[in-house]
Amino acid sequence: MTKKLHIEAKINGKDTEFLCEPRQSLLEVLRDVLQLTGAKEGCNNGNCGACNVLLDGRLVNSCLVMAPEIAGRSVATIEGLASPQALHPVQKAFLENAALQCGICTPGFILASKALLDQNPHPTEHQVRHWLAGNLCRCTGYDKIVRAVLDAAKT
What percent of the chain is modeled with pLDDT above 70? Predict the structure, then answer.
């Protein structure tokens, strides 16, 4: 039996403690231990972006980060993006541009878009498409998603 590790981290701005096995991914802990199910398991090998989160402000695939690696660090998930009063501008732009359908890829796209806009508040269409190349969508195509990001950049 593997000894569980006690991890302390800041998740969505809140000090959080949990137990995990050394081999558990951040995605597994978010979904199964912390009940934060916004990050989705798509490919589980870092190729689809459905599990994107921000780790210390940097976009990462949570399926590729081992949960013990986040000790003492800060994680932002889709659940922590909006405030109780309003959606984040990227979320609002996705809704207004109908840039979602089934929702599996949406949290990953939104967090990737936020990470882009944090680094480059006024990207070109080409820059948006390049940045989002690591996110896959099987339902909407990408034009509405790109438009949503460009609209969010205006706000």
Answer: 99
